[in-house]
Amino acid sequence: MAEKRKYKKRFCKYCESKVDFMDYKEVGALRFSLSERYKIMPRRLTGNCKRHQDMISAVIKRARAAALIPYTVTRKQVVTQPFENLR
Ligand SMILES: [Zn+2]
Question: Distance from the CA of 69 to the center of ligand 1, in angstroms?
């Protein structure tokens, strides 16, 4: 166990809050599945189920196309709280 595990919760957060439909305009709900560089978090780290992960990836891609989430982040823009300025 050389590597420290950052995300220990293994259950699906979206199943827990009983999310059936995701809106790409509600960026706050996608926060759990985006890294600080706005990348989609892999399922093995978030513990999301397949169903919700598929939903999330579709919604995030839609939100990117609508310019709600940046596609890429330069080194200077990297922040620990990516949704600070969205609130
Ligand atoms: Zn789920």
Answer: 22
